[in-house]
Fold:
Amino acid sequence: MRTRGKVHILMLVLAVCWGLFACAGDEEDTGGSAQAIDPLTAEWEDILAQAEGSTVTFYMYGGWAHVNDWIDTYVAGELKTRYNITLERVPMDAAVFVNKLLTEKAAGQEQGSIDMMWINGENFRNAMEAELLFGPYAEKLPNFQAYVDPDSVAYDFGFPTNGYESPYGKAQFVFEYDSDRVENPPRSYEELLAWVEENPGRFTYPQPPDFTGSAFIRQAFYAVSGGHEPYMTGFDQALFDQGAGELWDYLQAMRPHLWQEGSSYPKDSAALDTLFARGEVDLNMSYHPIHAQSKIIEGTYPETVRTLVMAEGSIYNIHYTAIAANAPNPAGAMVVADFLLSPEAQLSKLDPANWGDFPVLDPAKLPEDIREAFAALDLGQATLPVDDLVPVAVPEVPSDYVEALEKGWDENVLQ
Amino acid sequence: MRTLIKLSPLLIPFCVLFLGGMVLAVAQSLGFFAPLEAEGGLFAAYSRLLEPPFLRSFGFSLYVALVSALVSVGLGSVLAYGVWKLPASLQKTATLYKVPLILPHIAVAFMILVFWTKSGVFASLAFHVGLIDSAGEFPSVLYSGNGLGMILAYVYKETPFVILLALAMLKRLDPRLIQTAVMFGASRPRIFISVVLPHLKPVLHTTFIILFLYSFGAFDIPFLLGESSPAMVSIEAYNLYFQRDLSNRPAAMAMLVVMFLFAALFIGIYARVVSRMEMRERKL
Amino acid sequence: MKHWLYMALLVVLFVAPLLALVVYALAPGWRFPDLWPHAWSMRTIEQVFMGPQTSRIFSHLLWSVVYSLLTTGATLAICLVPAQHLARHEFSGKRVLEALLLAPALVPAMTFSMGVHFAFIKLGLADTLPGVVLVLTVFSYPYMLRALVAGYQAFGREYELCAANLGAGFFQRLLSVELPLILPSAIAGGSVVFLVAFSEYFLVFLIGGGAVPSYTGYLFPILNSSDRALGSMLTLVFLLVPLLLFVLTDVVVTRAYRKRGMY
Structure:
């Protein structure tokens, strides 16, 4: 009898397992219930009502621990208390989730699992061209209407945004160095090459198509081929071949003196940050001017780290959030996108202790007290003052160039 | 018929998911179900694999898998023999060798990072012993283009697996054989080679196949420790599939199919060669 | 003495690396060229057990445990009857079939999983728990099958025949005779299956698509980041689950068998 009792328990456990299995399946099927309203035409109140109590998945690059923490604590917490929305952050590279959407579209899946994405540049263009995005929704967001200058966010890497993504933050490319170790860091791309030759093994860049590594070669592209202006009007093969040729020469000249003699590159910016933090290379780079200060606060970088920009120019861009066309919860995603644009969220995001990402709001549209709060925030001694950043700021290249450069890098520098 | 019914709980998922997945992978490599219209004929994706970059990746994967499987099998069998010789009182404590078995591959890769980077634990040791004066002088174990980082990770993860299986086999070895050999004056290496290894041979062949194929096709460890160029085939396929534009999908799937075909072929050839060698030995 | 030296070698090779992780976890500032950290800190303990990420960390861990247990259950369910048949009966083509059935654990898992991914999206199985469990099951059942076949071979059909002669029906035989006898093998195979499923990163990432949380998925970006201390602490937490589980099954099974006087 006893034996049978045990066995029955075992069978019961198995049955419960399979039951769970089935339930989980059902839950997944009904997870994003049918849309009662069309969020593109509905009133904002109705969108808020629809979003209340829902879950929003946010797919984003997961390599920056401080950004993850900010999303998981501040953003998720505020969304819960304000709108009763549960935010699920999912770490994934932008190219990977765009590909995921493409695969889903090819398979004819009408409802996916991605609500919101952190995206820009060529990933945005790819997603637009394949009609993977929900919109136009940006102009519907109350905080967009109140605080954003629409002209400043009309283009993303030369590609019209058309309201299919809403602004999230502003970034500019800087280099980082430890002023204790490096007294005279290179301040132009010309000096950089000489510096790398004199300090073999002490410099490298993330392997494109990593976002930061790709931005590094774009900046070098401008620097060695005479500035950004010629490229602004759209893709021109002849122009590209000429400029790219000079770029490959420049990077090839640098390659033997790189970390690991250029036989290997850090896989992404997180990997390069690690090398820099541990003193294996002397120069680091970031698309976030306040990144170094955040790392100092976190305790990963020494207090003596400083940032600099190259004389030939430093790329700036605006990064965005977008909503998937097959999103299970577009209304919820709109509410989250709107919250990220609120002055409170943008202010919290600027704080180096949180993330240190520049706001996308138009200062002229902000109320006095908020403008003062932004101005009063201490960005830390590692961060360059805006007066140093603005004069060298140059726009991003149209996204066709980005892909051509990444592919060309593979063929001409890596191999 | 009865056999088929009895086996059906296994055969159905095997056919539908495993074989079905294979068929779909082949179909996608030929350009079916691709998100973009395929160009250049049915086997266009495969012709791309004949170019030097892929061949280099393929050769590199072979090399990493071969070295790590050989070292693991060699080290594992020696260590297993050592554990077997321990007195019974220590046998239980010796199961500590199983620790890496429960570590996930990504954690093992992380541990290799912790120990072997130019500023890692071994670099600190070398500094204190006086071998190096700065982190930069520490030899490039990782990311130097020779796959050493991945090999170290696989060896650390796989050696306990070899010990586990070899030890199970050794339990069936009659200790008197060894005593006899000792009486005849055989040296310790001699005993290992002439008595222990032949006994272990079948299990070592199996583990070698398992480990070799795993390291050849796995993704987790190269994703953390892999080098830019040449990259392991699994990473190449992943990058093509996820990081590049859609026209590369068939090529990515073709790489995976080639990987599978190689694995299948390898098992077949290896089994045949081993059995033939055994036949010859028996004749002798 | 010689034996102790050998034990020391085993410890240095296989356990010491873990101790380094413990040191790292408790001393985030440990860096080159210090042989031993200057300062200790509870930061990672706070981050993992009392911080804002705590609930996320443990919910990911729980999900991993759930899909790994489900996978273990599923492999047991599909292997039980076929294993018995393979162990007890001869039929033509058996060797080939046995070899074929072991293939999923041998050949690179990426090929079939990326092939099946497309079909899973069509079927609505991608990004769901059942989808993840199915793929993990196909990837890991050979371990269960091997263990069960070996288990069935170890004892003959006598028990079953005896029970049949005493009038026990099919299900009663299965429940009261077969299962208790095969349980040790099922646990041995199940431990391996659980471990394989629990440690897997790529398959869960691919089929789960981030919608099915997993501990390895949570861990990966951190292992790749500059925070070695947090990576170390989370790796140690990872180890706890299989350890706990194995101790637990060991205790439960031993006790059950002892009670019945079978051990």
The domain at 44-168+319-379 of chain A is CATH 3.40.190.10 (D-Maltodextrin-Binding Protein; domain 2).
